[in-house]
Amino acid sequence: MPLLNSFIQATLVARSGPGKNIEGWQMAVKIQAMLATRLRLAPQARTDPQKVARQAARQADQGRKPPWAGMRNPGEE
User: Fold this and answer.
1) Under a CB-based contact definition with an 8 Å cutoff, are residues 35 and 67 in contact?
2) Among 28, 30, 37, 62, which residue is least crowded by beta carbons within 10 Å?
3) How far is CA 31 from CA 2, 14, 40, in A?
4) Is the CA virtual torsion 10, 13, 15, 21 positive or negative?
5) Alpha-carbon distance 51 to 53, whole Å?
């Protein structure tokens, strides 16, 4: 519960915008990101890196292209 309360407070500070106190806002955003990971709200906290690697290897073995293979970079035409 204390982690969730801290996350909510950091979110409220981050949403208020930088205003005159940019350092305080930057700290709130950093704390918000750290707490999101700890609370398993961030995608990287919910996925197991080994599972992702196994899935990518399995796709490569089956000759399938990764989902991002056909995407273009911004600015390319």
Assistant:
1) no
2) 62
3) 13, 10, 14
4) negative
5) 5
Tally the residues of the chain.
77
pTM of the entire structure? 0.56
- Chain segment 7-34, per-residue pLDDT in tens: 999 999 999 888 888 999 999 999 999 9
> And the tokens for 56?
């990518």
Is 62:72 a contact under the CB 8 Å cutoff?
no
> How far apart are the C-alpha atoms of 52 and 54, rounded to whole Å?
5
Are the C-beta atoms of 43 and 52 separated by less than 8 Å?
Answer: no
Which residue is it, tokens 């197991």? 48
Instruction: Look at residue 59 in the predicted model and tell me its pLDDT.
Output: 76
CA distance 37 to 8: 14
pLDDT at res. 15: 92
